[in-house]
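request received
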Amino acid sequence: GAGVSQSPSNKVTEKGKDVELRCDPISGHTALYWYRQSLGQGLEFLIYFQGNSAPDKSGLPSDRFSAERTGGSVSTLTIQRTQQEDSAVYLCASSFFYGKYFTDTQYFGPGTRLTVL
Amino acid sequence: KNEVEQSPQNLTAQEGEFITINCSYSVGISALHWLQQHPGGGIVSLFMLSSGKKKHGRLIATINIQEKHSSLHIPASHPRDSAVYICAVGIEGGSEKLVFGKGTKLTVNP
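response:
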């Protein structure tokens, strides 16, 4: 079946503009994660959605970052007033959720490469 | 100190060599993941384990919960194994988010 898809694959924007990144998880996966991979840096967690529970936003670096998940499926990560340090690959992953505190295999999307000029 | 430490950071091997990549962590975990990232490519989950040993093709992953340590073994390495291997842990009692090591860049020469 289809894997996790993300769009766009590449996004170039000017400093100060807003951007929206989209993630389509695997059908039936109720857990959805956003991560960021900056050049030369490791992966870092941004936000986690599980079903109708309140999202874990503990990884969002500033209030310019927000995310929503509509209808328990598609998610959009929004970065307002982009800065050059926001340049990175933004990765989405999804997984089954069997119960609290049980981590299942996460399936990653191809990522969106964001460049802020 | 990072919660997840990997070693080595970079590894160059000749085809056929036995490769071991190590991962140590300092927090309680629900599970440990090994991920593979090819140059310019996406991330693939290789293993998720919380105890013992798992095998996936040629690759073997082990974990010692008491010592908070995991190893990824690649027997009979091949140039197609060249990639960045990333160790990640799900924090015990956390929201299932992953905390990542910085990765090990493996290059296998023919």
